[in-house]
Design brief:
Length: 395
């Protein structure tokens, strides 16, 4: 068995057949022309494969993304296309490939990694921790009727996603710059959503500034308006987009839209009846997961005041002793044991949970994610206060 990188043209005969078998309905006639047409959408992906005698045994892919973690935007390794041949499973091939790929990504200057897991426990073995699943809110557009009379200082434009794509991308860039957890795919990878022409786009502006955008499609007259992520810079953008949905009262029965986990639909309109759902189930409904690949590279991140010695255990990439200091408001990372400071022992998943703001230090022991005596918990809690990430990773 050997491991090597998959070149662009080789994808047609190596990674694409395996991922098609793993993730698409089958058997289907092989449409090589369609696969070839899709090759540009993978041009910057980094794919490793394990092969034996010309047979592809397993593949893993990293997508060069960016992610906001506590206000700083880092190069991120988005992991995707993880699959092994049905006759070569449980033989350690994916473990070997993923370990190699994550090491390469860390050396390539990507201090964080995120993915959507088929089964969280599988990726937990690789140091990933679960992040919140953004909920989908469904409601009858009639319930937003009061917004139709609201005097809002802004306007919306409506077009096909293909026509307004640049504005939509600007909105995504704004969000990744300002919202903890938000990630963004490279341009070449998202071009497929623009090219597929399967979505409408509504964009909200005020004083010429972008304040909101959402993509959607409509199933039928009297059917559903299925929106993707409600992207806004604040209440005005949200109100402008919701008012647009309200104008569909005689056209669709329900509107559903994915929202920031910090959203409070109770405040969108008085008398709004809604269902807010976040479904997570193996293997098809995934909450995102993330991990840190380099702690040193996170130096400078905005943190609270605190000082703690941390020993990271059982990880190929960041195991070791660190002194973390947040006295300046920016994370300082020094290698080596701290003298006379509270100390904790953490797994990388535990540390990632603190940095991503999804765990309290007191929870770590209950989940086998570390040993954190109270004095160290106080310091870690002050440095990494809970902060819910919103992972918008779609186009
Ligand atoms: C999931 C899949 C990629 C695993 O590949 P694999 O080559 O069998 O994985 P490995 O043999 O390298 O196993 C790696 C580790 O995960 C464990 N593991 C494998 N399958 C697992 C599963 N379904 N659930 C939990 N753990 C699992 C193995 O025991 C091993 O643990 P260890 O190294 O700590 O002993 C493969 O079954 C597959 O292609 N499935 C269909 C596509 C899919 O779901 N891909 C994942 C998309 S996110």
């Amino acid at each position: 068995m050997q491991i090597r990188r998959v070149s662009a043209e080789e994808r047609l005969d190596t990674s694409m057949p395996l991922t098609a078998y793993a993730f698409a309905p089958s058997p289907e006639p092989v449409d090589r022309e369609k696969w070839r047409d899709n090759l540009p959408y993978y041009q910057g992906h980094s794919t490793l494969m394990a092969e034996d005698g010309g047979r592809t045994l397993a593949v893993v892919t990293s997508i060069p993304m960016r992610q906001n973690v506590r206000g700083s935007v880092y190069p991120m390794a988005g992991i995707a296309g993880v699959a092994s041949h049905p006759l070569a499973r449980r033989q350690g091939h994916v473990r070997t490939l993923l370990t190699r790929l994550l090491g390469e990504m860390r050396d390539d200057g990507r201090p964080v990694s995120a993915l959507y897991p088929f089964r969280p426990s599988f990726y937990h073995r690789f140091g990933y921790i679960g992040l919140p699943m953004p909920p989908t809110v469904s409601f009858a557009p009639a319930d937003l009727a009061p917004l139709l009379r609201a005097d809002l200082p802004g306007e919306v434009s409506w077009e096909r996603l293909a026509d307004g794509y640049d504005g939509y991308r600007d909105m995504r860039e704004q969000l990744v710059a300002r919202r903890h957890g938000c990630a963004i795919l490279p341009d070449y990878a998202v071009a497929r959503f623009r090219d597929e022409e399967q979505r409408w786009l509504v964009t909200a502006r005020s004083g010429g500034e972008l304040v909101g955008a959402v993509t959607y499609r409509i199933t039928d007259h009297g059917g559903d308006l299925l929106a993707d992520d409600l992207l806004t810079t604040g209440p005005l953008g949200r109100a402008l987009l919701l008012r647009f949905f309200a104008s569909h009262v005689d056209q669709v029965t329900r509107v559903s839209v994915r929202v920031d986990p910090d959203e409070a639909p109770e405040q969108w309109a008085t008398d709004l009846g809604f269902v807010s759902e976040a479904k997570v189930a193996v293997p098809s409904f995934h909450a995102p997961m993330a991990r840190i690949l380099s702690l040193d590279a996170l130096a400078g991140m905005a943190v609270g005041p605190g000082r703690v010695a941390v020993t990271v255990v059982d990880d190929l990439f960041i195991s070791g002793e660190y002194l973390l200091d947040g006295a300046s408001g920016k994370l300082e990372v020094t290698r080596g044991a701290g003298m006379a400071v509270p100390a904790a022992t953490l797994t990388v998943a535990g540390l990632s949970g603190l940095v991503y703001g999804v765990l309290d230090p007191a929870e770590l022991a209950f989940r086998d994610l570390g040993t954190v005596p109270d004095p160290a918990a106080d310091q870690l809690r002050a440095m990494f206060p809970r902060q819910r990430p919103y992972v918008v990773a779609q186009f």
